[in-house]
């Protein structure tokens, strides 16, 4: 007979998820029968999609999953995929450039991106359509307009091309599909603004909540401290998101113009503004020294607001002149008085004569030649006025959108031409695996950033790195993969390096003591899987903020051993001993040192006091 624990496990992990899924499906069925619409949901989907299915979106999502499982080796360790070789470090590292936007940093990363893709990609594919014009027999006459070709090949190929473009023109060593998700969202917003914004703000959260509830019906959470970390927005590839968004905008606007559609301006403006704020496109930031981050939220909000208006004009405005004719004429008068041509006065007399003509047919016959002569004889100022008034509102706004896209892409080009001249880092020890070098170092210059002194950013000049650093000249790779403060909190970390078809794990461990009232004294060891640990770093000594029997106690790390130095304040004499093992004791300088669990005590003349605690 099964135990009570087994029955509970089956109920929670099998029965409850089945009931939840059945309830959701039943709800959809009931609501679909109650909802009185002009057309059934299936008919609406089939009107633009083959069999009503977004085949292209499914293929792209499956491709991203395959990269995570089989290229990044997520199938072996789902929570710990290989990420280091699949970032866009440099144009001189093609593998990273081609795979970065298909790869992900972990399970939460890929689930978040694909949940968003499940929402916005089908909307974008529906807007594009498997049937290029009206559904009918003629739609399959050309292979370019064949619905199955557009669904199974053309749409996925376009998405793959956009994915690679977001890698090539993203700023820094990015990883993730989010740039393409933003492109999907922008393309969908242009065509179906309200549906898209509801999907992004609501449906995506519903999908993630359902997944987490099905995967872990009852969660147990314990309040605990967390390591010092950068703000959440400091880990977002904001330039990559904006780049993808504007790529989607340009493609969406181009398709609208080709089809001659002009959507509602208010809906477009509201949707783009809400999306920009909700998805953090205003989070413009930069790095400073000493774990300082600059968030330009005021300028960011202003930029998003202005661009929402510009994009709305580019989508919905007419081709009325950007500069009215009246203002254009005033502008030309400011530039200088018009210089009349030699035929100006005769032409004016001829027009007046036509106006007094009794025969309208004769007047009409003479008007066209006179206007042509007037145009040919126009002065430069009048021609400038004509050019100014010929620039349409929609054309000007769309040109500005293209300029923003060019700026977003162009700023990444100099950075992505990065070449790593010297991968060596000052370190006592390093692990070498194939072309990788894994080492621990502190206060070394961050090789991938060369900021410029500008106003309030004058402190953000020399960015230093401390922690586990992975380098590879072959891959143009220099990365701080585990910050020193994170290792201080966790004590041990594992780093996966590798490439297509292989992976190796390197372990790093920090052991240390914290003298009372002062900084920690620690050692860092590093080793590859299956090898012996080797000492990679030793910190400086630190004195306990206590005095016993007129003596100071300093803890140090020497050649892999922790030592206690006892210094007499009166004579300056120093005696040294090693830190005793657990529940053992030792003496130095007349002081007795006892180690009880994670604490070291010093005793003399009946006085006993704690001097250090293990990290």
TrEMBL record:
InterPro entries linked: Peptidase_S54_rhomboid_dom, Rhomboid-like_sf
Question: Its topology with respect to the membrane?
Answer: Multi-pass membrane protein
Keyword Acetylation in the entry? The reply is no
Q: Which residues form the Peptidase S54 rhomboid domain?
A: 97-257
Pfam family example for this protein? Rhomboid
Name the segments for region: Disordered. Answer: 334-364
Looking at the UniProt entry, the stretches that span the membrane are 6-31, 52-71, 86-103, 110-128, 148-171, 180-213, 233-256, 268-288, 294-317, 396-419
Q: What is this protein called?
A: Membrane associated serine protease, rhomboid family
Q: Identify the species of origin.
A: Natronorubrum texcoconense
